[in-house]
Write a structure and sequence with these properties.
single chain, alpha+beta, 5-stranded mixed sheet, elongated, 31% helix, Immunoglobulin-like, 4-stranded antiparallel sheet, 187 residues, 2 domains
């Protein structure tokens, strides 16, 4: 009987030890999961802060919730240099990504400061235009603004950056806002 009691006590101790090991293993898993969730939360906060850095005032001015097509930049803008030509290749697409080539639309370009309350920039302090070239384009599907120039360095402005807004007066078209453009000194 005493042997049975000792055996049961040992078995009980082993069961407790096994439960403690399982709990410590689970607490380690819970700790690792908690650390992973904190890391994920940090990533989400960074993602949200990047979204917050967009100029909400420009977005309010040029967004259109009822648009059925949007202006899409076909090729990324490479380095921009003061008084050097560049081309903007754009297309009009529906929200499925298909080219919208049925109707003809007019798209315009404006240059803005990167301030919290952006200002349209048309001329420099000497009265000369800053955005030079054809800033109005009528097309179906795809089009290009060719031989555009920005005649001032962005570093001459308070934030050191510009924003280009491509928009249409049509209520069907969602604008494109290209923010944080840096125009460097001519090569």
């Amino acid at each position: 009987m005493q042997e049975l009691q000792e055996f049961l006590d040992k078995q009980k101790d082993l069961n407790f030890k096994m439960l403690e090991d399982m709990l410590s293993s689970q607490s380690l898993q819970i700790h690792n999961l908690s650390m992973g969730l904190k890391s994920f939360q940090h990533c989400l906060e960074n993602f949200k802060s990047k979204d917050r850095s967009r100029n909400k005032n420009l977005i309010k001015l040029y967004s259109n919730d009822e648009a059925i097509i949007f202006i899409h930049l076909e090729k990324d803008i490479q380095n921009l240099y003061c008084k050097s030509d560049f081309t903007l290749s754009i297309s009009l697409r529906d929200y499925s990504g298909n080219l919208a080539k049925n109707d003809e639309y007019t798209v315009y370009i404006k240059l803005f400061s990167a301030d919290k309350f952006p200002k349209e920039i048309t001329v420099n302090s000497k009265g000369k235009p800053i955005l030079v070239g054809k800033t109005k384009l009528q097309f179906k599907g795809k089009g290009e603004f060719k031989k555009l120039q920005i005649t001032e360095q962005s570093s001459n402005f308070p934030q050191g950056k510009f924003a280009l807004v491509l928009y249409s007066n049509s209520p069907d078209v969602q604008s494109l806002i290209l923010e944080n453009l840096v125009v460097s000194k001519k090569k």
